[in-house]
From TrEMBL, chains A, B:
GO MF annotations in UniProt: DNA-binding transcription factor activity; transcription cis-regulatory region binding
Keywords recorded for this protein, A-Z: DNA-binding, Transcription, Transcription regulation
InterPro entries: Homeodomain-like_sf, HTH-type_TetR-like_transc_reg, HTH_TetR, KstR2_TetR_C, Tet_transcr_reg_TetR-rel_C_sf
Superkingdom assignment: Bacteria
Domain HTH tetR-type residue range list: 1-55
Transcription is among the record's keywords: yes
Organism: Microbacterium esteraromaticum
Pfam families cross-referenced by the UniProt entry: TetR_C_24, TetR_N
DNA-binding segment(s): 18-37
Keyword Heme: no
Protein's name in the database: Transcriptional regulator, TetR family
Length: 184, 184
């Protein structure tokens, strides 16, 4: 039920997806849906938790907490790519939120905290010389996320590019781009 | 009228923005809007043309047509960043399209042709050794666009980062990431 609801939200936009549309996509009635959840916002909450729990769990792993800042950054970026691919429709929904309701704003706030942890790793890696210092660290972080988050828009889970290869490619391009220009 | 309509589409999603909502945002009546346009799809068409005409015009400039593939790629990426920033709300609308109508699909097709021109430059630059060959060129192109397109989600036109500085930063990170690993 959650999978199909999230697919509908992603196809039409959450705001434009009524309970009537959901019932049709689920092949059931509105009252049958209301038997399970209080409304479509409950479905949104469950879906956003799935995406955010996945991303946040990456930060709890030992690889995200131990080692050099560059190694930790590499670990977290790889983990984020793998979560994006594993929870593709859920992260897609998260990334398309506009923050129109309290629930959406609180999910965006959790996402900002996740982004902030990565910005901190970028700062640490700049401080020890493993990431270029000629570009503002917020710009670096945002462009990195832009690259990674775009995966939800184009990655085909049934294509030939495996999640691990994709993660390797992202890390190779990102760390190439983040090196001090003098080192090249 | 177009500016305010596009802001409403971007805030709420195009599908969820009714003519009633548009009238309210414009401080006018639905019939006053219908005096100027046949419906909200006309507004969408005008807005998408503005974004696409801007992007396509970059490809017509001499810098996009002459020089080495790497120089042409650099020119086009810089031009794309500057159009994104100049036409921010219009490109935002374009990038959020889901392709639910004929008009949306035809705009997405024009955007795909633009992306395809850049993919061709990436291929040419790979062929002459100026872009890494260890990563699939479609993956490279998509990650590049992901980075660049993300600008519409976070760039603040009234902030301290100028469009030219942003374009420099994007080019520096992108070309760092695209170099052959052996060269570093």
């Amino acid at each position: 039920m959650l999978d199909i609801s999230v697919a509908a939200f992603n196809d039409r936009g959450y705001d434009a997806t009524s309970m009537g549309v959901l019932a049709e996509r689920l092949g059931t009635t509105k009252s049958a849906i209301y038997y399970h959840v209080a409304g479509k916002e409950d479905l949104l909450r469950l879906a956003l938790d799935k995406a955010l729990d996945g991303l946040e769990s990456v930060l709890e792993e030992p690889g995200a907490r131990n080692g050099s800042p560059a190694d930790r950054l590499r670990f977290v970026l790889r983990g984020a790519v793998l979560v994006l691919v594993r929870e593709l429709p859920y992260v897609t929904l998260l990334l398309r939120l506009r923050g129109n309701t309290e629930l959406e704003r609180s999910a965006l706030e959790r996402r900002r905290r996740f982004d902030h942890e990565i910005a901190t790793l970028v700062d640490l890696a700049r401080a020890d010389g493993s990431v270029r210092t000629d570009i503002d660290s917020r710009t670096i972080t945002r462009l990195l996320f832009g690259m990674i988050n775009s995966i939800v828009e184009w990655y085909k889970p049934d294509g030939s590019l495996t999640p691990d290869q994709l993660a390797d490619d992202v890390i190779a391009i990102a760390f190439g781009g983040l090196q001090q220009p003098a080192e090249r």
